[in-house]
Design goal:
two-stranded antiparallel ribbon, mainly alpha, about 5% strand, 3 domains, about 650 residues, five-stranded mixed sheet
Length: about 650
């Protein structure tokens, strides 16, 4: 029994008693079987199931009532989805105030139900549609799937070992996901909070991965690796909308082999990697929705933007840029937007709705939400005022210098924070294509599609350069527009292909082979940059031997976890337990006791573990004299001794 929107009464009826049952069981489980509301909901679900007709339809007496709702069912169900998300917002606030884990999980469940319901209303897929889609685009799908597989191999190969150690911010991410960092309760008690830019929904995915794969490096890096892989088909879709299949394949290929994208798909230190698949998909549905006057596509784009907001700060950049884009397009491409304003309202309305719980938390805790910007904002941190006072230069000149620095990191300046590679973001071939494409895009910016691409790139560059510090972070923050750089580089290649169209037919027919050859050279350059010049030469956390050592100590402690009663560190003023969260994350929280004075013994018995830094290895003899018969483990890294482990099983 289908209505005009393709939604069956049968499906809605099943959803009614299934959701009632899940929520009822959740309340009963959380209360030890004492919840009156849980009993009522579960009873309702079982009652509805009892009276369901054999064909899984609503009882005959209720069907006329449901049929009368058919003409406005989508509107009613959309209103119900809005009510669900508003209820989730209220429950989330209640969970924080009462520290109620039952409300905490239920708020997320209801929020997800609202998202699924909105998607169900506007995304109509059937087996026939999928089959037709496959038959039409089969070859293209296979090619993109193959390219995505190559990207996955580059991102998942030895994910837990390359880079060998974890950086402090990676450990913070893992500990925050597991709620083990000593932070403000509001960051843990609300299911839609933010921690250093990471949305709690995003951190729950980290937590799931760590529960499934263990509290180790692989589990910590799994979510970024998945996001980095998904970015390839997402970028392909957006680029295909702009320039067709050939240019889209070039753009996706450039992102697939990008050394910067590979690296940040293999570390959890920053959350920008998720924007490399969210942003292209959001812009694809936004652009195609405008061009096709499709409300369904605009709603899907809004859903993605709302979800993006719950992952990382980069969603705010996209939302702001799209508002500016619409203002500019209203002046220079008015016909493009004509008849689209209602759909545009749905796009932003749905995005705002999905982000509502997080927005409410942000207003309730503005200090926590803006903590990152207070530390690293150009204006908020006081950095700009200090620069003016220290240098005597005008504000405009200082900001111009920031813009120059950010732009040069794309193709001229080496990476610094969180990577320490000796190369800029783009290799020299991709950078050349990028500059060609950038020039072409600027000269054709009045076209709505090109205007959108230009807005995406330049808004990201301006936001990073003018509103964030330090300059050393420019490289990794520009990940938010790395897909746009690859699309611009593909446009540069397409421009060269257009020039080749004027060549004799023999040379012109060879252009696809040249495309493959150039992509192969670019891939070789980037793989060499990452796996040989960076990883192979131990450049991760270069100059931070202490940080690398703590990560290795954490791995060592985890391996000894079940056979150690007490752990001690023979360190110095640089090696002091409590300074690096990486050891706590990797060890699973095994505490250590600092021994700063020359070793004379400890007042403990049982299975003991001692970690000795290289500068104090001469005290190993005193350790052996105190507790003879122990096992010595020497751990080296980058051809240098990092520490010596000494374990005594029974003392």
């Amino acid at each position: 029994m289908f209505d005009s929107n393709g939604i069956t009464l049968r499906r809605l009826w099943i959803a009614w008693f299934v959701v009632s049952g899940i929520v009822g069981v959740h309340f009963l489980a959380a209360s030890g079987g004492k919840s009156v509301l849980g009993t009522l909901l579960l009873g309702q679900a079982l009652g509805l199931l009892w009276f369901t007709e054999r064909q899984w339809e609503a009882p005959a007496r209720l069907q006329p009532f449901l049929e009368r709702l058919a003409p406005s069912r989508r509107r009613i169900l959309f209103g119900f989805a809005v009510s669900l998300i508003i209820a989730a917002t209220g429950l989330a606030t209640l969970a924080e105030k009462q520290k109620n884990s039952s409300f905490y999980d239920l708020a997320v469940l209801i929020w997800l139900a609202g998202i699924v319901l909105i998607a169900q209303l506007y995304v109509q897929l059937s087996s026939a549609t999928v089959r037709q889609w496959w038959q039409t685009y089969r070859r293209e799908i296979i090619v993109v799937a193959g390219l995505t597989l190559v990207a996955a191999v580059l991102r998942f190969y030895q994910l837990g070992q390359i880079p060998k150690t974890i950086e402090g911010d990676e450990a913070w991410t893992g500990l925050a996901a597991l709620k083990l960092l000593p932070v403000a309760p509001a960051l843990y008690d609300h299911p839609f909070s933010f921690f250093e830019g990471f949305g709690r929904i995003h951190l729950r995915l980290f937590r799931l991965a760590l529960y499934v794969f263990g509290q180790n490096t692989f589990g910590l890096r799994l979510i970024p690796a998945i996001g980095g892989t998904v970015a390839i088909p997402a970028t392909y879709l957006f680029a295909r909308r702009l320039m067709g299949t050939r240019g889209a394949f070039v753009a996706a290929s450039l992102l697939a082999v990008s050394h910067a994208h590979m690296h940040f798909s293999r570390t959890s230190a920053v959350g920008y990697i998720q924007s490399t698949w969210f942003s292209p998909l959001e812009l694809y549905f936004f652009l195609s929705g405008l061009e096709q006057r499709s409300r369904a596509r605009m709603v899907v784009g809004g859903l993605l933007l709302g979800l993006h907001f719950n992952f990382y700060y980069s969603a705010q950049m996209i939302a702001g840029f799209l508002i500016v884009y619409l203002l500019v397009a209203a002046i220079f491409a008015r016909s493009f937007l004509r008849g689209n304003w209602a759909n545009i309202a749905y796009f932003f309305g749905v995005a705002l709705l999905i982000a509502l719980p997080s927005i409410v938390w942000s207003f309730q805790h503005p200090d926590l939400f803006s903590a990152r910007w207070i530390k690293e904002g150009t204006f908020q941190s006081g950095w700009l005022a200090r620069e003016v006072a220290n240098t005597g230069r005008p504000v405009a000149l200082i900001l111009w210098g920031r813009f120059q620095h950010a732009f040069l990191t794309i193709f001229a300046l080496p990476f610094e924070d969180f990577y320490w590679a000796l190369s800029p973001i783009l290799d020299f071939i991709t950078a050349t294509l990028f500059l060609i494409g950038l020039l072409w895009a600027l000269s054709n910016t009045r076209q709505p599609r090109v205007l959108l691409l230009n807005g995406w790139f330049w808004s990201g560059l301006m936001a990073v350069s003018l509103f964030a510090i330090p300059p050393s972070a420019d490289s990794y923050r520009l990940l938010v527009v790395l897909p746009a750089m690859c699309v611009l580089a593909a446009l540069g290649w397409e421009y060269l292909a257009g020039l080749a169209g004027n060549l004799p037919s023999a040379e012109n027919s060879a252009f696809p082979r040249w495309t493959f050859a150039v992509m192969l050279v670019i891939a070789s350059l980037n793989v060499k940059t990452y796996y040989l010049d960076f990883s192979g030469k131990c450049r991760y956390m270069v100059g931070n031997s202490v940080g690398r050592a703590w990560s290795l100590i954490g791995d060592y402690l985890r391996e000894q976890h079940h056979s150690v009663d007490r752990a001690y560190l023979l360190g110095n003023e640089y090696y002091f337990y409590g300074t690096h969260p990486s050891v706590d994350f990797l060890s699973g929280g095994i505490p250590m006791t600092n021994i700063q004075e020359p070793f004379t013994g400890v007042d403990a018995r049982g299975a003991l573990l001692f970690v000795v830094i290289p500068d104090r290895q001469h005290e190993l003899a005193a350790l052996q004299a105190f507790a003879p018969g122990g096992e010595i483990t020497r751990v080296a890294d980058c051809n240098d001794l990092r520490f010596i482990g000494y374990r005594v099983d029974h003392y």
